[in-house]
Amino acid sequence: MVLRTLAASPLRKGKTVRSSIFGNLDSSQPQPNGFVLENHKMLRVQLAPGEVLAKQGSMVAFQGQMDFDYEGSGGIGKLFKKAMTGEGASLMRVRGQGPLYLADNADDIHLFYLENEGLTVNGRNLLAFQPQLSWDIQRVQGAGIAAGGLFNTTVTGTGWVAVTTHGTPVLLDAARMPTFADGQSAVCWSTTLQVGVNRTMKAGALIGRGSGEAMQLAFRGQGFVLVQASEGAPVVPSS
């Protein structure tokens, strides 16, 4: 798979997040702390022994001894946010020793290594991350609860994060010019970016056929946005 990278661009001052997407990480080789891509669609986590947080139901195989526990929302505050927004994949905590294989609907998998950094991820695209990382559900400024898909999960700290994309994504440098993306197509982005809502609905769209693209996420500042070639599976609103 060939992905156009922006490693030469100043996506942020100082070092750039480590990822094969930027050309500064070889995801085909064993990585520190046990994260490695078995192939583009399967992640191998080597627990020796240890634990990992992963999307519930993403285990496809394991060897050795493993215990799987439902992680829940991670606290009352996160539980309330999930109930109100529908954001955030249900997580499981896997403990044990041996190789654990994770995948999600044969989607492509991409690794990021954070070093005291943050990454905002669409909850449906979050496959796995190391337990020492902190995570929370945050609302995009300017978007109310009625605007579905505009709540996302932010992961911060030092450690590995694995995200999925439907097909080969495109990497956009928001520092070059104002950048906009469909809320369901935006997979993840730098927490250094200013994120808001861009509304493009015109009065004429209320009569007859509208474009169907009345609202997008707007990104500005130093950082990147990873966009997949799909809006993903339909999301059933939370009751």
UniProtKB/TrEMBL annotation:
Q: What InterPro entries does the record tag this protein with?
A: AIM24, AIM24_sf, Trp_RNA-bd_attenuator-like_dom
> Do you know which Pfam families this protein is assigned to?
AIM24
Signal peptide span: none
According to UniProt, the name of this protein is: AIM24 family protein
Species whose genome carries this gene: Nonomuraea rosea
